[in-house]
Amino acid sequence: MDEQRLVRISKYLAKHLRHQPERIGVELDANGWVDVEVLLAAAAAHRFPISRAELAEVVASNDKQRYVIDGDRIRASQGHSVPVDLDLPVSEPPAFLFHGTVGRNLAAIRQEGLRPMGRQHVHLSTDRETAQRVGARRGRPVVLAIRAGAMHEAGHEFRVSANGVWLTAHVAPSFIDFQGP
């Protein structure tokens, strides 16, 4: 499959497995799963046919491992704006995690901290490079160091998605090191 088709399918999956499943008549279960055949039939019915082989290739080759297939079910690993419970166990984070953003967001982050905005969780990465790539999607990136170990000690919960993205409800400004660790 060519790169353009791969990207189009990945974006289609993101839209319908993370944000608007109802748009194609798909209903995610409580944990975000949908039957693969139901998804493929809905995509075809809405003039975006995807073969099972294409779906498998997109899931396997996605550089961020955004999707998971488990038997006959598929779901997005994280990033949902629709309410789902990914049923991920609470995990102890490393001492520092990182978040990529852009400079125009810093004033609000200094006041309010990191909020999930339209999603269910704040997304954090284990390395600066990933956070820098995330921030670069919206302009010149700024990487924030998050004192995740201190947050955990203070009672904040963290979960880690199947693709290694750390999730938490909110990061208060007091846990953000704006200069790096």
Automatic annotation (TrEMBL):
InterPro entries in UniProt: Ptrans_KptA/Tpt1, RNA_2'-PTrans_C, RNA_2'-PTrans_KptA, RNA_2'-PTrans_N
Membrane-spanning intervals of the chain: none
A GO biological-process term: tRNA splicing, via endonucleolytic cleavage and ligation
The entry's keywords: NAD, Transferase
SUPFAM superfamilies for this protein: ADP-ribosylation (SSF56399)
E.C. designation(s): 2.7.1.-
Top class in the EC scheme: transferase
Pfam families for the chain: PTS_2-RNA (PF01885)
Gene Ontology molecular function terms on file: NAD+ poly-ADP-ribosyltransferase activity; tRNA 2'-phosphotransferase activity
Function: Removes the 2'-phosphate from RNA via an intermediate in which the phosphate is ADP-ribosylated by NAD followed by a presumed transesterification to release the RNA and generate ADP-ribose 1''-2''-cyclic phosphate (APPR>P). May function as an ADP-ribosylase.
Family: Belongs to the KptA/TPT1 family.
Listed name of the protein: Probable RNA 2'-phosphotransferase
Gene for this chain: kptA
